[in-house]
Design brief:
The protein is an alpha+beta fold. The chain is built from three helices and four strands; from the N terminus they run E-H-E-E-H-E-H. Helix content is about 35%, strand content about 35%.
Length: about 130
């Protein structure tokens, strides 16, 4: 199976005491991508954040987000490498979907004139009188 690489995005939570090893974790991820014929596209490092609830007894973590290209059949092997890294508390890999442009779809809002509304209300009133009058 020789498919095209797809764009993925990974969000990682690293142990809060892993400040000096953050670079090492990112290098490990990039090396793994290179061995799988993938490539890193973009990365952003965020500061330490307090977690909403403890994860494996950790209450703080360093957040990292990275976009990368990888073939879908290599994604499982990549996940197993992430699972083996002890500095990673939790991670999530997502495949971003393209955003649809809703402008110019041809759907227009029809405005009803006040006269037509009044005429419709008069017809409804007549029908109600007929029903209730019987």
């Amino acid at each position: 199976m020789n498919s095209e690489p797809k764009l993925y995005e990974i969000s990682l939570i690293l142990k809060s005491d892993a400040d000096e090893s953050t670079g090492k974790v990112l290098e490990n991820i990039k090396k793994t991508l290179e061995t799988k014929n993938g490539r890193s596209a973009d990365e952003s490092r965020l500061t330490k954040k307090r977690l909403a609830y403890p994860i494996n007894k950790w209450t703080e973590g360093s957040f990292i987000s990275m976009k990368f290209f990888l073939k879908p059949e290599d994604l499982l092997d990549f996940s197993s490498v992430l699972n083996a890294d002890k500095e990673i508390i939790r991670y999530m890999i997502a495949s971003p979907t393209p955003q649809k442009d809703h402008r110019g779809t041809g759907k227009k809002i029809k405005r009803v004139s006040a006269e037509k509304k009044n005429a419709d209300m008069k017809e409804i009133d007549k029908k109600l009188e007929e029903i209730l009058g019987q």
